[in-house]
Amino acid sequence: MIEVIDSETCTSCNICVRVCPTNVFDKTDGFPVIARQEDCQTCFMCELYCPEDSLYVSPFAETSVSLHATELKDADGLGSYRRAVGWTKDTKDRRGIDRSHELFGH
């Protein structure tokens, strides 16, 4: 379940808003907002596509956990799913295999 958007690193690109299949986020004049957390399917798409590693999706789909961005930064948790699947800044040149990056500009 989506738990955190780090306001210190989020650039308001709204990629998370666009990739979410269940419309969990609301676009605002500033940072996106987790508006419908209960609709999160724990698909990790938002965390995967976030170019700044500003999101954290908990692998516990049925239970919300109370976490803060500071805790996640200390534990290297923000963007951990993207790193786990090998989609990092160091592997950006290999993303051409997945052409969806063209849709989102990253």
Averaged pLDDT: 81
User: How many distinct helices?
Assistant: 5
Global Rg: 13 Å
Main sheet record: 2 strands, antiparallel
Strand order of the largest sheet: 1-4
In N-to-C order, the SSE pattern is EHEEHEHHH
CATH topology descriptor:
Alpha-Beta Plaits
* Overall tally of domains: 1
Quickly describe the structure.
By secondary structure, the chain is an alpha+beta fold.
What does this structure look like?
The chain is an alpha+beta fold. It has a single domain (2-90), classed as Alpha-Beta Plaits, CATH 3.30.70. Helices cover 24% and strands 10% of the residues. It has 5 helices and 4 strands. It has helices spanning 15-19, 45-49, 69-74, 80-84, 101-104, and strands at residues 2-5, 25-26, 33-34, 55-57. The strands form 2 sheets. A two-stranded antiparallel sheet has the order 1-4. The protein has a two-stranded antiparallel ribbon with strand order 2-3. A hairpin with a 6-residue loop joins strand 2 (25-26) and strand 3. 26% of the residues are buried. The mean pLDDT is 81.
Write the layout of secondary structure elements.
Layout: E1 2-5, H1 15-19, E2 25-26, E3 33-34, H2 45-49, E4 55-57, H3 69-74, H4 80-84, H5 101-104
Antiparallel strand pairs: 1-4, 2-3
List keywords for this structure.
106 residues, alpha+beta, Alpha-Beta Plaits, two-stranded antiparallel sheet, 5 helices, 4 strands
